[in-house]
Design brief:
Strand order of the largest sheet: 6-10-8-7
Order of helices and strands: EHHHHHHHEEEEHEHEEHHEHHHHHE
Radius of gyration: 29 Å
Shape: globular
Helix content: 40-55%
Number of strands: 10
Number of helices: 16
Structural class: alpha+beta
Length: 444
């Protein structure tokens, strides 16, 4: 619905409620990221580190969204309106800037073989660039005013931001810069995508975001052990044993033959079931779980963790597109039709702009599935939270926790996990592809 005057009171109420409800959920997600990353070592991964840094910007933006239209109601020169405008200018584009930093890390890891320690050394520059570069114009605009246009900060329909008289500044000082960052990141992902496409056969299903730890060197098996009197256990028949060429019976060992003092009480028979690898896939390739060994990954890239980092960074980039495409469409409409207000576009903008924290926590959880399961089990009383081992007396207190965090981030191994070097990832088990039932016959 277009209006040549202004939004109706009902439309303003709908926008205000949407902004605040979405902001509350975003803030909850942000606190989840901040608390778990800082205090729980299982969440402290290099691939989560930049999401952690970006969360502070999300928090500032959501505080501004909670103020909503109260800033406009307080008046354009009121401290509340000016504060809200400062927050929006300061934090609205931060996620896009962090997405650009993630893309640059992908470029360095893919094409210049940077390790996690080398990438971590860039964090201070990323913090300075993302927050420092936003702070300078946000603070400057507080003091800029002209006789013709008035102050830069003022009413902007959804909230206080850059006044309508300075509308071109919204493009020049935010939207334009954000889209330059998005295009830059997109160019990097296109180049990295070409590398991934050339290796698509080996990486089939590997890029599935639900596949948290695709590197492994060990295949686990399911073992069933039955213990009891030999006369009560039915050993595998010759017909069953003949079904699989891998079935073996351990016989012929001195002192273990039947007839030497009675039935052998320690006979063990092991049968290996059919390899599930030969089964026809029941899911599309993109949703299949794919596990590769460290050696196989090293053939593709000297830093295999770069694949994991690229996957997470691209998910973060997609979340940025969800936010900025509809809000940019609303901005373009306002420039083309300055005397009209498109309520659907304004409503979508009010929905997606405060949702940065929600989208970020979704990416964060996808990259920390095992840690989330451990946390849930701990909250249910089925496990222990990592911080309980860190918080205590003496050296095990807060300083011990800080030292543990530094140690957790100190290894130079894979980008995929800051707590363990890549060879530790190799030892993680994957979904079993074989089943090994074991039956032990014992006699009283």
């Amino acid at each position: 619905m277009d209006s040549t005057l202004d939004l109706t009171s009902g439309q303003k109420t709908a926008l205000m409620i949407t902004e605040r409800v979405v902001s509350v959920f975003s803030i909850l997600g942000i606190f989840f990221i901040l608390v778990t990353f800082y205090f729980l070592s299982s969440f402290n991964k290099p691939i989560n580190r930049l999401v952690f840094y970006a969360s502070f910007g999300n928090l500032g933006m959501n505080i501004a969204c909670l103020i909503s239209e109260d800033g406009i109601s307080a008046g354009p020169l009121s401290p509340l309106c000016q504060f809200q405008a400062f927050l929006i200018q300061m934090f609205l584009g931060v996620d896009a800037f962090w997405s650009c930093c993630m893309a640059w890390n992908v470029y360095l890891a893919f094409f210049h073989k940077y390790t996690d320690r080398q990438l971590r050394s860039l964090d201070k520059w990323y913090l300075l660039g993302c927050y420092g570069a936003s702070f300078v114009p946000a603070l400057t605009f507080l003091f800029v005013s002209t006789q013709r246009r008035g102050r830069i900060y003022g009413p902007a329909r959804l909230w206080c931001w850059i006044d309508r008289e300075w509308d071109f500044m919204r493009i020049a000082m935010l939207y334009g810069i954000v889209w330059i960052a998005i295009v830059f990141a997109f160019a990097i992902y296109v180049r990295a995508g070409r590398v991934i496409y050339k290796r698509r056969d080996k990486l089939k299903g590997f890029l599935n975001p639900l596949n948290e730890n695709p590197f492994t060197g060990v295949v686990t098996t399911e073992i069933d052990v039955t213990i009891g009197p030999a006369d009560q256990i039915s050993p595998p028949t010759d017909a069953n044993r003949g079904r699989n060429p891998f079935d073996q019976t351990f016989e012929g060992i001195p002192g273990m033959e039947e007839g030497n003092g009675g039935p052998d009480p320690y006979t063990v028979e092991i049968g290996v079931g059919p390899n599930t690898r030969d089964r026809k896939a029941s899911k599309p390739e993109i949703f299949q779980m794919r596990s590769i060994t460290r050696e196989e990954a090293l053939k593709e890239n000297p830093n295999p963790g770069a694949w994991l980092y690229a996957r997470v960074a691209f998910l973060f980039f997609l979340s940025m597109l969800i936010i900025w495409i509809p809000s940019s469409a609303n901005r373009v409409y306002s420039l083309v039709h300055p005397d009209r207000i498109n309520f659907p576009l304004n409503y979508v903008s009010a929905l997606v702009l405060p949702s940065q924290g929600i989208l970020n926590v979704i990416v964060y959880v996808l990259t920390s599935q095992t840690a989330c399961r451990e946390l849930v089990n701990a909250l249910r009383g089925r496990g222990t939270m990592p911080w309980r081992h860190l918080v205590g007396k003496g050296r095990g207190g807060f300083m011990g926790m800080m030292q543990s965090r530094r140690g957790a981030r100190g290894s130079e191994g894979s980008i995929g996990d800051g707590r363990k070097s890549f060879h530790m990832l190799q030892s993680r088990a994957v979904t079993s592809e074989v089943s090994v039932p074991m039956v032990a016959h014992t006699a009283n």
